[in-house]
Amino acid sequence: MTNLNNNPGTPPRGEEFKPREPYTHRLKKLLEEYPDGTQVLREILQNSDDAKSKVQTFILDHNTYQSERLLEPHLNKYKHFNLNIDKYQGPALLAINETTFENNDFESLLSLADSKKQDQFDKIGVMGVGFNSIYHITDSPSFITGDKYVVLDPHEWYYNGGVKFNFIEENLIQEYPDQFAPFTPFGISCNERFDGTIFRYPLRDSTFSNISKKIYKTDEILEMFRKFYENESIHCLLFLKHIECISFYELKKGASKPELLYKIQLDNAIQVRNKRSSIVENIVPLMDELRLGKLNDNTQLKSSYVASFRHQKGEDTDGEINRWLILNYLDDLLETEAHFQKRFNKSIGDHKFIPNVGLAVPLNSLNVIGRLFCFLPLPIDMPFIVSVHGYFAVSNNRRSLWSAAGNEDLAFDGLANLKIQWNKYLFEKVLPKAWIGFLLELTKVDDTDIQLNDIYRFWPRAINMSDSINTFCEDLLKNVVENLNIEDRVFNGPSLNAIGYCWLSLSDGYLDEKSLDSNLLKIIGNIGFPVISVSYDIIRILQRSRHNDNLKRLSPAVIRDYLDLKFNRTRWEDAAVSRQDVLQLFKYILSDRDFNELEGFKMIPLANGTLGTLTLYSDSYVYIDEITNYRNEHTNNLINQLNSDKLIDKTIDFELYEILYNSAKARWGGCNLNIKILDEIGVRDLILIIRDMNENEELSTNEIENVIEILKRIAKIQNDDKIEGNNLQRLDELLIPSTNNKLVELQDIYYDDMGDRLDDNEKSKYEITHNFVTQNIAEGLGIQTLKGKIFGNKDSDWETYEQHESLTTRIKNILDDYSIDSLFKEFLQNADDAGATEFSVFVDERTFQHNSKNLFSDEMVCWQGPAIWIYNNAEFTDDDFRSLLKLGTRGKSRDEKKIGRFGIGFNCAFHVTDLPSFVSGKYIAFLDPHAKFLPEQGFPPRRPKGARIDFMEKNFKSFYDQCHPYKMLNCNFSREFKGTLFRLPLRTSTTGDQSDISNKFYEIGEILQLFNDVQDMNEMLFLRNIESCSLFRMDDTNTKLIWRTEINNFDSCRLSRQNVVDEVQIYQLDIKRTNMRNKKISEIWLLCSGRHKFISEQDLRVFSKENRLMPRGGIASLLARSSEKSLDELRNESIINPPKLRGEMYSYLSLSINTNLGVHLNGNFFLPSARNGILQSKTDFLQGDCINAKWNRYILYDVLPYLHVKLLNHVVDRHENREANFLSYISNNLWPITRNSTISLYEDYYLNVIKTLGTGNHRVFWTEFNGGQFISLKEAKIFEEVEEAIIANILVSSGVPTVKLDRDKIEQLNKIVESRDPPNFPYMPVSGESVCEELQMVISSIPSFNNISNDGNMQYNRDSLFELLSFILQDKNSFGTLTDLPLVPLNNGSVGKFGEVYYVGKQKHLDLFPNIGPSKFVSTKLPENLQKIFVDDNFCACTNIKKFDASGILDLLRSVIQPVRELKWVPDGNSLPNKSWLKKIWAILYKDMKKVDFNKLSKFPLIPVVQPSDMLIRPDKNNPIIYIPESGHTLYPLYPALMKLNVHITNMVVPEKAHENLKKCIVECTPVNIINSLEKIRSSLSLTMKQLFEISEILPEEYILFRTLIREGMDAFVAQQQNQKNFMDIPRSLPIWEVNLCDDKFFDATSGILLPHGFPFYSFRENSNVYKPTKKDRASLTKLGAACMSGLELLEDLIQQIITLFPTPSKHPKYITFLREILSDKWRNDKIVQYLIKYPMFPNKALTEFVKINTLYDMNVPIFRRIFKDDKFLPSELQDNAVCLEALKSMGLICKMIPTEIPETNGNQREVLLNTLLKKLTEQQDNEYHDVIFNVGMKKIGANRYVLSAASEHFEREFHGLSERSEIEINVPDDIQPISIEILLRWLYGQPFEVAKTIATNEIPSSAYISFIMNVLKVTHIYKVEEFKNIVETSIKKGQYVNIQEVYLILKLSRECNAQGLINFYENHIKSNKGIFREQLSQSENATNEEMLQMINSILEGQE
């Protein structure tokens, strides 16, 4: 802003008030983003609110003011444009507020899009562009504020951008009153300070504007006021901070006082003012404290209030008041700041991110749609009724929120992404908290129209969400729920007060999740229950929220509990609510079928109308009749004596009746509820009937039969009830007839099922049932059996086994842990624990089901098939039996010598069977978990789950079929059995389907395969007793051995195996294996077992004691295996080299877990119930936090490594004692890790073994030094045995003890060192430095590395030296220890000492300088790795090795080339320099260019140029050359043009890493560099760019190449502009752009105009300055700032051409093509359509003139073609184009006449005629035909009087009384045509009119049709045939005629015929199509018929 000082006597100049950037162009761009309309008013309102004004007034001033005494402009540009000085004295919009401008407000106006409100946290605006929206309506706003008067002039027509005056100091009102006259009508005196601000916006009155072409009229401003009032009024005040009143006035032309149009004001402003602005007043100080780091407390603020808004229209109304609940909320600033600092490292203050939101909703009416606000409403609807406000990041034009588009990839910390994330933060973090507060405030509001159903409309339940807001609102409801406090009372409950609802929280209300019936909910609420009714979407989110676990859910159980409370019973019992309501509640609490909880509820609907009480413990029942008898009086015949208080009421709701019936039928789910099916009369009553008989008297046969019948019914009831389990207690008093014909108590009588297996003498000891009592009755009544009595369990040991009610489920779960694979091992384990030495398994294929007559029970027949027999030679003890029955009680866990500890391993048997049994000693035992195969026993009788029988005492062998399978295994039940024999009968598919344990069944082959695999598992290795193991196969003929494994040396190892001692034991097992082919395998195993004597950690000691677990383990290593040699031969072998062993884990038996170690590991692990589960989870086993896992880690990582080392030491001792050669065995088999390991789980194991080896100084490492020996880890220098073997050998040759190990072993040693556990581990990895140190001590012994050794053998040659150097030099620490070592390989083949000077390079380097001979050079044949080290800077510095680099090159250059400016050369010659030599020199220089002295380099001519090609020149950064490679370049096609323009080029490549000065000498061929070169050439020649191109004769195709150059280089140009001022002016100046209509002219980027891409172009002028760009060129022109013209502006220009040039359409045929493109879907939009409608832009078909579209007709309408000529139709090109035609129809093309509704008529003359004729015929038989003659002119037409009189009342009256014999003649009027009489008669005779009139339509021409049809109408009128008349009228109406002459004839004759319906129809038809009729009235051929003109005009004008 410039201060223009005024000189005395000169007009006032004021201060220059001008923005800092080009104004109009920028404003135009801004307006494209900023919409006009009411948005302009909103922006003004925003600025006033920011200024803290309480009032905002808008005034439309229609007046134009005097212009005699106006301020004189500073500029005279306006004169050049023929503008007047009074241009802005006309109508204007004024805006007034009550605050005065501050300095920063002035600054904001000077800075476009750079608001001074950015850092003012209490201001709305942040863009700085809102004020500029006013330029939609004006070109020069002005305003008065305080003592300042400001005029803005963006065009700089009058002022240099604008001017600011102090109008008081300069007393401007006196000198220039007209200037201030527009302000004075509004109370502005202009001679004193104005406390406020008044803006004046003169309305734009012409299109001559560079800002906008839109002209604004006063009507449009009034419309703007109206729309604001109707659409925005109250909304605009909701979230503003200060504005309390908005008024709109109109100052009409000549008026002195403005009139009020509209007013919106806050009625209770005083009451809510402080709350309204409280948060914004706190924001500034809080943000300051945050910025200064002084903010410590939570800053959450909330302000809520009810605002009363009045909106008033005009002065004379009081207006309407609307009440709104409004809440404003500020979230914690510290929390928000921390969030953005953590995520983006950004401060919220830097971006004016304030966590402030608001919510508002009207209280009077909820018929609203919520809006989105950023203080003022945005054009975004919310998907709910609540309006939402926030400090959102909005787009520049305030039309939308910042949000990501699709998968748009935005920079994470870029401003765009920050804005998006901020909006998300407000919606996801802040708004939910505010919403909770809002809902809580809502509960406090009184006097509202809110209804119960509306409560949840205030929640953010999104419905019909728009895409624009969807991203932000989709999780809003979820986040609100997450922020909800469980105590927040925001849910509606039952009606407890006048408003119809109460408020509940989640803590005190119950959710209705099932959407129950509203009537039921009302009942529940009426009894005082706090039920929460809420929509399903809220329920779903609550269920997924953090509140889910705290939700109280409405359920039948909850209601039952509520009803059952003593103090609640008064709410519903004893008629507190209606019986119907009680039954509703009853039906609901029944719905969860939890019938056990119904005890005591008085809810049973009895037939006597009362309610009975439900009970579970009563013998008195209520009965319900069959469902089929619902609501009828049918009575069950079984009981006819029941009273109504024993029957369910049949009149209750059917659904409840059905529930009761079905529940009773289903026995109430096992509950004894006292409602039963009527047909299921209680057993109790039946028992009483029997007991009425005398118990002690002998019964007759008849009496016994009656008792039997009753017993049958009871048994049937019992059998039916078995589905739910027998309730035998109710039979306690039942009496049963005995064999003595007396009644005996049920519990004292037995059913005989022993038959002849028991003699009569024995039977007499028992009461036996009568013979009439069948087995079915006995079973149904639960009568005890004799078999059960005799063989039943009397042993208490069965109690534990029996107590498992779901034993099958327990076993099934056990089987999930124990696989079928465990079967063999579990029985083997049990045998070993029992002390057995022999273990055998027999797979029995035999079947005995044909021998099933004499079984222990008939049900056992299904288990008489194939079986598995398992034998061991130890006998079952009583303790063993008890352990077997006690599932999961760890029967053996307290015996340290036992392997098993869980007591459930035996249950593996149930994998294959449901009925295992075993014989041992004198007992046979059966286990029947299903309790369905053993005989029943006891009272009440039941099948046991197992039985143990003393077969010697009980004569069990009498069940000979049961005992038969045992005989083949030496068990005959006549003597005790030595050992134990298990029988596991195999489950079949049939028994599997019936099993509750498993449905799996196994074939014999599967069992054999399973057990056959066991042989290879070495299961006996760690057992203590078993010495042989066998598998056999049995069939009906013999028993075959499958395999046997046995310990051969059991005498020498038995004691070691059985002893459980603390000392370490090492012993050998010799094992022999035999298979069915008698093939034998011999194995020798070495085992080490023992324990830790002391457990160091207290918790492990406690665990060991509690679980009786000792820290014991074992290691097993395979010493030898052979299928060829015997055990004796294996024992005598001298070299131990067994096959590789795949190590496994054992806990005495294998765990089926592979370790990949070379040994088997056995540990006393803490096992889960299933042995194979120990390592199912690595985490649980070793890394869990539980003590179990810790114990297992202790065993694996402490106990077992200790034993492993003991075994290693033992083997080393045996090797040194020369028992055998164990070297390979130690390193490959016994070493803790092998090449094939490792599962990472065992890594710590073998690491611990190695740690133990190292820390204990154990000699287990073999070295070849000094003839070979074992040494300790501390002594060994360890190398990799393959890759580093040569280094190890060299060191051994030099006297260093080295050990060679494989890589895996070395890696484990390194891991231990890296872990520093233990800290003093004695291993140190070898390094290059350590090797040098060793060699320094033996320099004299280092080999010479000659190719031939002294003895003539190949030994350490040059390759050996390279290997040694490679190893040493990989360690950079070795560089300093190399001095004096003779290890430098020289180029002449010798070896030099490190420390002397040598040069390292390649042969090609020596060849560059032939004059320098081969001095001291390191061998050029170094391997690549050594080559890299020898040129390493650090290496060279330590060893004096010198590199052949750029520095050396510069020193050597003078031997080839002299330092001159230019040099002639022969590039392809042989002498130096040549092209090859130069290329190599530059290659070396580039490698180290940054260290080169550029001044020194620049003295040598080393750069070749393209022209001339034989020249070398010095590098010169002040005169760079453009580089284009010979091989091609994207810009290479420009080469010829560049040559024409004198641009210099080289093909020498300068790499990116080259010296900066060198890069300045040769620049890339880039668009930027080419443009700069062109500018230098242009400048040097003093030409314009256009002149340069013209003299260079650039070809058209080269212009295309230049456009491509600009396009591809645009991004680079923009970037270059930042560093090179005015750079963009150069590409703008290139004359390369094509324009329309001028093929030979090219414009620069500033001289033309750009249309939208693809927009069609047309001009009536011959020349054009409109660019004709491609799509790509368009983007370039846009970026270069080319002026743009919209499609609408092109149309504006075209209409100006039409108006001014008067073109003839016929001379511009292509214009129609242009129109066709404009009308396509691609370009047609609302604005273009409105413009095309508005102006005459369409040629007619005759091509005679341009007209408006609404004056043309659619030629496809036939009637129009008959009426109009070509000048009223479209050109064919538009008419025939479907898209154009549809578009033009929508724009006003007349395409149809408006149809008039035709009333329906109804006539069925044929039926009337036929019926009447039949009547006439029966009454008169002598009819004559044609007794009526119609005389029509010269023609006579005959008819029958009966037909006529029957069909027409008129003829019947005419013929009445006439003689029937006389002929009747009727003379027809002259103007009636004969054809009309014929049609009348045809219709009267029954022919339809449409058929009858065809006789005329075939003869009468179409032009005469109207006359004909009207003649027919006249006939119907004359002869009063009304029905026919209606039909004819309808036919005429259907014609919808629009020819004016035809319509005139219709109306004229209709009046004659009194056809009023037809008259009304066509008058409406004329009015509906008035355009068509008025057009015809204007035609000359119709002008002569004055009567017609008068008639039609009167109709159109509504005068007739």
From TrEMBL:
Region of interest: Disordered: 1-21
UniProt GO molecular function: Hsp70 protein binding
Gene3D superfamilies reported for this sequence: Histidine kinase-like ATPase, C-terminal domain, Potassium Channel Kv1.1, Chain A
Limits of the BTB domain: 1826-1893
A family per Pfam: SACS
UniProt-listed InterPro entries: BTB/POZ_dom, HATPase_C_sf, SACS/Nov_dom, Sacsin_chaperone_reg, SKP1/BTB/POZ_sf
Protein name, as recorded: BTB domain-containing protein
Species per Swiss-Prot/TrEMBL record: Rhizophagus irregularis (strain DAOM 197198w)
